[in-house]
């Protein structure tokens, strides 16, 4: 029973993470980490797929090994966040929703910009 529950939660998290790539208020990373956690405890096959076959696998493996982002990811994430929130702010007419969006934007950017970045080739040269 627990195994199937974790598999269902894991796949739900994968779907939400995929939607989070294009929807500005839906985060991708927490759902991916939740899916990896669920699959690691319920299905080695799905866990392997998530880490080695999905589009998110490289980022998840890098995070698991180094607790950091690969080079180039931080500025791409920042760019996508700013662009999607800019579109949302442009489309929304209610001032209180704009204030909420700006607060979420500031929180997300603060989180992203505080994450460490490790460049492995430079680390090995030292």
Structure summary:
With 126 residues, the chain is an all-alpha fold. It is 77% helix and 0% strand. It has helices at residues 2-20, 29-42, 44-52, 57-66, 73-91, 95-114, 120-125.
Helix/strand/pairing class, anyone?
mainly alpha
Number of contiguous helices: 7
Q: How many separate structural domains? A: 2
Major sheet size, sense and barrel closure = none
CA distance, first residue to last residue: 49 Å
Low-confidence stretches: none
Tell me the radius of gyration: 17 Å
Mean pLDDT: 87
- Encode the helix/strand succession as letters: HHHHHHH
Helix content estimate: over 70%
Strand content: under 5%
What does this structure look like?
The chain folds into two domains: 1-67, no CATH class; 68-119. 77% of the residues lie in helices and 0% in strands. It has seven helices and no strands. The chain has helices at 2-20, 29-42, 44-52, 57-66, 73-91, 95-114, 120-125. Helix 1 packs antiparallel against helix 2, helix 2 runs antiparallel to helix 3 and helix 3 (44-52) crosses helix 4 (57-66). The longest helix has 20 residues, at 95-114.
């Amino acid at each position: 029973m627990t195994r199937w529950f974790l598999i269902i939660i894991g796949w739900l998290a994968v779907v939400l993470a995929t939607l989070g790539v294009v929807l500005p208020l839906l985060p991708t990373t927490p759902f991916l980490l939740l899916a990896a956690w669920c699959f690691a405890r319920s299905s080695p096959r799905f866990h392997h797929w998530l880490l080695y076959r999905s589009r998110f696998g490289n980022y998840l493996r890098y995070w698991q090994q180094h607790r950091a982002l690969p080079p180039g990811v931080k500025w791409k994430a920042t760019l996508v966040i700013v662009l999607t929130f800019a579109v949302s702010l442009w489309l929304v007419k209610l001032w209180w929703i704009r204030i909420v969006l700006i607060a979420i934007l500031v929180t997300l950017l603060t989180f992203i910009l505080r994450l460490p970045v490790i460049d492995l080739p430079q680390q090995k040269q030292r």
